[in-house]
User: What shape does this take?
Amino acid sequence: MQRAVDEELAASKADHSLWRYRDDHKDIGSVYIVVQTSQGSVKELIERDGKSLSAADSQAERQRIENFIHSPSQIRKQQRDDAQDDKSAQDLLRLLPRAFRWKIVNETDDLTTLHFDPDPDFDAPDIKSRVLGTMSGEMVIDRKAHRIRTIKGELTDDVSIGWGILGKLRKGGTFDVERREIAPGIWQIVETHVHINGRALFFKSIGQQQDEISSNFTSVPLSTTFEEAVKLLNSSPDEQAETRER
Assistant: This one.
């Protein structure tokens, strides 16, 4: 488990690859094409509720993208949000070995399957860690690459925020994440399913319902600009290949 965490952290630090991919948010019925650049990502909505956008909606989406790539404030906000997401993910990853009690339940030549339960001695430093530490589930590790292939879990108890006054996440919430090697040594999340329910102060929902599938990954040059990313949004495979060669 510790070796897998170390490999993931090292790979995250070393990986500077960029990708174009299809991002299907099945929970809200929206499909995007995403193109990454070193300055941030550009994404275009291409389907809503199983249907392609109308000409008017497509034009509005294109205008939204143009506004974004020429807005320093929006770009900085995306960069801050992405950096915070990366930090949160790495912080939680580092906690995995000590937040749970781990047990090997199956091994093959290629995979190790581990079961995890909350460690009662784990002292969670923040609310995200408390939620993490209340999970029980299963993780599958690729034995050759020492990379995490899948992880899924379920909240074993309600999680109270501010002694329940500010909010509560309900027992039984689940998450399921699948990762795949999309290029030699490069692993990406291809499926994310999160179904956690709860209430916050004034009865506002604080749960998360997410069903997201990412596919059709193609590499993008590290030098890609926002303007080039926009051109790649609706490019053909041949045009994408030409861009990679340049």
Notes: The first strand starts at residue 18 and ends at 25. The helical segments are 2-14, 55-69, 72-99, 127-132, 226-233, 237-245. The radius of gyration is 20 Å.
